[in-house]
Amino acid sequence: MRYLVKDILRDVRIQLDLDAEDQPLICQADPPSLTIDKMILAQVEWGARQVIEEAPVWKLHTGIPITGGVAWNDAPGVGMGLLLLPDDFLRLIAIRMSDWQRDAKIITAHDDEYQWQSSRFPGIRGNPQRPVAAIVSTPMGWAAELYSSMAGPGVTLAKALYQPVPRIQQGAILLPPLLYHDIIQRIALLVGQCFQSPGIQ
After folding, report:
1. Exposed, middle or buried by CB within 10 Å (0-12, 13-18, 19+), for 133?
2. What is the pLDDT of residue 26?
3. Which of 32, 77, 120, 181 is the most exposed place for a label (fewest CB within 10 A)?
């Protein structure tokens, strides 16, 4: 959902005022409103990114569809497929090939399970019954290695949804609705840390 930056500034200000009842976040000099708004604005993208990266997948809402073709390591529709991810990719929400029985389990190259994907035994690596998508870094950017398919040339990408890096564009920013309150709190915390206030770490 797209949120107006002016509304985010308002909600963060409210959050700071509420926190101020227990712990003063605004310095005694009482900076001008314009200065505070600039400080909030500077933390919007970073605060949103922190929360989105930490959140469980189910809180990321529906995401944005990924379009593009799948390259195959072996023959088309057989073995591991490779899907390049968008330049603004932050998190993969769900992915499924047409011959898979369920959405893939999403892992990274740092997970122990990633080493299993190179096994020559189909029951150990990802397969249509228990598919796995591994997020990896390639010379072309981030990509998803898709383990694995067996149905041949007719296999297609049935579903691929991702969460983009949050960026302010034309006075608005795309955020998951279920995380909005958490993001407002995080931005308020980051702004509060800019002040020399007791108890803020």
Report:
1. buried
2. 45
3. 120
Average pLDDT value for residue range 157-166? 97
Q: What are phi and psi of 50, to 5 degrees?
A: -55, -50
The string of DSSP codes covering 4-51 is EHHHHHHHHHHHHHHHHTTS--S-TT---HHHHHHHHHHHHHHHHHHH
Pick from 48, 57, 13: nearest CA to 183: 48
Q: Whole-angstrom Cα distance, residue 65 to residue 79?
A: 23
- Which residue has 């505070």 as its token pair? 36
CA dist 153 and 102 (Å) reads 20
From the list 21, 22, 41, the residue with the least C-alpha distance to 33 is 41
Q: Is 183 helix (H, G, I), strand (E, B) or coil?
A: helix
CA distances from 69 to 97, 100, 155 (A): 12, 17, 11
- pLDDT tens for each residue of 38-75: 889 999 999 999 999 999 999 998 889 998 899 998 89
What's the gap between Cα 99 and its chain centre? 26
Tell which residue, 119, 114, 112, has the closest CA to residue 104.
114
Structure tokens at 7: 């509304």
